[in-house]
Amino acid sequence: MTVLVAVTQAALVAALLVAAYRPLGDHLWRTLTGERHLAVERAGYRVMRVDPDAEQRWSAYALSLLGFSTVSVLAVYLLARWQDHLPLSSGVAAMDPAGAWNAAVSFTTNTNWQWFSGESAAGHLLQMTGFAVQNFVSAAVGIAVLAALARGFARSGTDGRVGNFWRDLVRVCVRVLLPLSVIGAIVLVSAGVVQNLHAPSELTTLAGGAQHALGGPVASQEVIKELGTNGGGFFNANSAHPLENPNPWTNAFEVLLLLLIPFSLPRAFGRMVGDLRQGRAIALTMATLLTVATGLLTWAELAGPGLAPAAAGAAMEGKETRFGEAASALFAAATTGTSTGAVNSMHDSLTAPGGGVALVGMLLGEVAPGGVGSGLYGMLLLAVVTVFLAGLMVGRTPEYLGKKIGRQEITLVALNVLTMPALVLVGTAVALVVPAGLAGLQEDGPHGLSEALYALASAGNNNGSAFGGLTSGTPFWNTLLGLVMLLARFVPIVLVLALAGRLSSQRTIPAGPGTLPTHTPLFVGLLVTVTLVVVGLTFVPVLSLGPIAESLA
Amino acid sequence: MTTTAPVRRPTVGATSISFARQTLAGLRVLVVLTVLLGLAYPLTVTGVSWLTMRWQANGSLLTADGARTTDPSHAVGSALVGQVTDGPQWFHPRPSVAGDGYDTLASAGSNLGPNNPDLVATITERRASVAAAEGVEPAAVPPDAVTASASGLDPEISPQYARLQVDRVARENGLPRDRVAALVEAHVVGRDLGFLGEPRVNVLRLNLALRTMAP
């Protein structure tokens, strides 16, 4: 019965995603390729004094993106440092420099790692004008980079022009994220997600105790937090909080929101490169990996291995009654598979194999389906690796979507694939040898290692979920994780844009008899294998010492 | 989209000038987008919610009579947020590690790992104390009664845990057992659409209904 319920919940979400694939994918395609500007956009461009029609070479595109991200980090940093002087701050204190740095980087990089509790450390104005704005724009940046890469594949023989960053950014916000957020926010309010500007106010409970009624612009933030695969909770308990996620259907709705854009983008990509089958193959690869992860996580939580679940009779520590094990496992798989990092259960209390699957979901590099935009460009790089390997096997020059994968292309891809593991493993090693790093661990033994590895994997993949037992609000952890988040986001972005520029300047070559078809089930199987092999070769040793050792204990 | 413009490699100096220019443009773009996404959007949603769903938007507060209110000073709590009701006459919620228990300013789970010895000890203690309070065998205590929720604010318990408390609550309030049992059954909410989430009982709503029954 429980298994049937678990499968049905997941099937409902999957069916809705399939239904959205075509209309949302086509809408994203029109947004990224349409020639006409909306009147409101044209007015915006005039105020911003940017030219939305100037085609940028990849380097100019990258500079615009980095310039925008730099002011974003600064803006959130200053808002966090001065929030006690802002209106609607209801008595919260300013953040310290390391904490404000971490929060600013975290929200700008679409990670949304939170060392602080939203209800006590972030005023409403910081939440709205700092965090929520970054929820929108960091998601749009991810989609913009993907669009640039798609144009690289689609164009032929340019001088490296890949689009216009400002137009991509503004259009994705105005035409995709904002309308969906308005609808989603109103749906969530109807279920009881709070939406006002009040400070907490005290009330007397039924038994005569004191409690605070909570206020804040929660619903408007909740929806973009999921839709943009951001994940930073308005409240500390994130989507486990009953005022962020009040009942099982809002839970399914939120899972749908966080998978919606990552799973629809392959369709938009397929249209951009002029072959819908290519997009479908990528979407199927993502779906295969996510389905396996969801299945394993659900099995682990329902079976409930471990001493505490055995003592309690079920793995209900850190889970909400309304969700139970199955809906918690579904959310956990979706949030770690999408680089969202929102949680509706406490991941530190997941069973050892369940926590291990969540960890591997991130270590795959957030490509199944990954964050908005970033998941797809990550997966496309793995597709390039796949055709490269296949090309080596048969001794032909590898090509993908009509573009030759030569030495320089594969170098950019390889650097990209290596960036995340280097950051995660070096970061974990640093944390485990520095006393200030070890001081943050709550648990001894393998679970302690898992806490550190999970934190670095989360930061290094711009996910943001945590094994919350880790005390991360210290200058050491805030600085380390801030650096890792920053590099993990922008090093790959610059490399992807460089690749996009090179591809855009190449002439498209017609497919010949030696071309490996990249839309077939065979290719999907190869791509799944390559994804797993890359993560396996890199992370099996450290996973053995953490969750695997713990599962076997 | 082919273009014939010559390829010019910018020098390092040109790049840094260009970066400064792009950063300034970024600032203007961020300001405009902040007005749209950080002010206009949340305030519009707030306004629409205030006009059409005022009770939900203000935290789903209930008065002692079980009526809806938007004024915290008239409320005994939120229908969506658990609270401490630890007297023997009340139905009890799940264990909570939010502050000293159900502190809405400190929502949190324990975050203790699945093999943590302290957690195992705590669960064993909770099982013994719930069993003693309800006068049942320790093995009869359901999982949600001995585990802390994710938020620390879980408003609900399993139907099993609610049923387990019927004897004590009936006795302490001087009510017939079958009336209290019927009250619990009337408050059991099934899975949404029959397959989403888990069956559950809202503790505050149950206690409010109990109060109107008590002699």
TrEMBL record, chain A:
Transmembrane segments: 58-80, 131-151, 172-194, 249-269, 281-300, 376-394, 415-438, 480-501, 522-543
GO MF, one annotated term: P-type potassium transmembrane transporter activity
Membrane topology qualifier: Multi-pass membrane protein
Keyword Signal attributed: no
Compartments, as annotated in UniProt: Cell membrane
GO cellular component terms attached to this protein's record: plasma membrane
Keywords carried by this UniProt record: Cell membrane, Ion transport, Membrane, Potassium, Potassium transport, Transmembrane, Transmembrane helix, Transport
Function: Part of the high-affinity ATP-driven potassium transport (or Kdp) system, which catalyzes the hydrolysis of ATP coupled with the electrogenic transport of potassium into the cytoplasm. This subunit binds the extracellular potassium ions and delivers the ions to the membrane domain of KdpB through an intramembrane tunnel.
UniProt-listed NCBIfam families: kdpA
Binding partners and assembly: The system is composed of three essential subunits: KdpA, KdpB and KdpC.
PANTHER family, per the entry: POTASSIUM-TRANSPORTING ATPASE A CHAIN, POTASSIUM-TRANSPORTING ATPASE POTASSIUM-BINDING SUBUNIT
Family note: Belongs to the KdpA family.
Name recorded for this polypeptide: Potassium-transporting ATPase potassium-binding subunit
Organism from which the protein derives: Cellulomonas gelida
UniProtKB/TrEMBL annotation, chain B:
Domain of life of the source: Bacteria
Main location: membrane
Key word Signal present: no
Keyword hit for Hydrolase: no
Pfam families membership: KdpC
Gene Ontology terms, MF aspect: ATP binding; P-type potassium transmembrane transporter activity
Bilayer topology: Single-pass membrane protein
GO cellular component terms listed in the entry, alphabetical order: plasma membrane
Keywords in alphabetical order: ATP-binding, Cell membrane, Ion transport, Membrane, Nucleotide-binding, Potassium, Potassium transport, Transmembrane, Transmembrane helix, Transport
Transmembrane segments: 29-51
InterPro entries in the record: KdpC (IPR003820)
NCBIfam families referenced in this protein's UniProt entry, alphabetically: kdpC (TIGR00681), PRK00315.1 (NF001454)
Family classification: Belongs to the KdpC family.
Described function: Part of the high-affinity ATP-driven potassium transport (or Kdp) system, which catalyzes the hydrolysis of ATP coupled with the electrogenic transport of potassium into the cytoplasm. This subunit acts as a catalytic chaperone that increases the ATP-binding affinity of the ATP-hydrolyzing subunit KdpB by the formation of a transient KdpB/KdpC/ATP ternary complex.
Subunit structure: The system is composed of three essential subunits: KdpA, KdpB and KdpC.
Protein name: Potassium-transporting ATPase KdpC subunit
